[in-house]
Amino acid sequence: MGKNSAKNILVRSEGNIGFLELNNPEKLNAISLTMWSSLGKALEGFSKNSSIRCVMIKGAGNKAFSAGADISEFEMQYLYSDGKDWYFMHPETFEQVAISDKMVGSLKNWVTEEDICKILLWDEQPISVMAPNFVDLEIVETDPGVKGDTVSGGSKPATLSTGAIIKVPLFLSKGEIVTIDTRNGEYQGRK
Fold first, then answer.
1. Span 103-128, pLDDT tens digits
2. Looking at residue 85, which CATH number applies to its domain?
3. pTM (predicted TM-score)
C-alpha cells in the first residue's frame, strides 16, 4: 500500500519554524493513511517544543501539490453479501473489494447483484459506496392494483425485492418492475 511513513513525512525545524515535507511526489503528495498518522505525531512533537511558533507544510517534487488525500473513485459491480461484508468487483481488472455491511448502510434497500456502484478508496481502503441514481426493482408485496385508478394521485405501500418499502401509485400490482430514485427512495415510474 503506502511507503514507510518515516520516508513519507520529512520533519525538521529551523529556529522558531517547524517544517513538514510531504514526500510522496509520484501521487502529487496526496496524504495516505500512514502519512496521516505521521502528520499527527509530527505536529504533536512540534506542540511540545515551546520554541516552535509556526509550522510550514510543503510537498516534495516540482509538480502540482495536492493537499488532499489519496482518494480514488471506481465503478465496481456488486457481487454478493455474506451477511458481514458486501463484495464488489472492478469490471476490467476483476479485483474485488470487501465493504462492511455498516458502510453499505441504506444502500441495501436499492442495490442488487450485478448493479454498478461508485466506490471511493482512500489509500486503497473503501470509505464510501454510492448506488446508481436510479434502479429497477420488483414489487413483491402490495395491495392489489385498482383498475382505472391511474389519475387519482393516491398511493399505497409496496415492498420491493430488496425488502425496502416505498409508496407507489394505487394501480400498481405485485410482480411489476418499478424505477426508484436511490437518492430519496421515491417511485419514478414503471417498466
1. 999 999 999 999 999 998 887 889 88
2. 2.40.50.140
3. 0.65
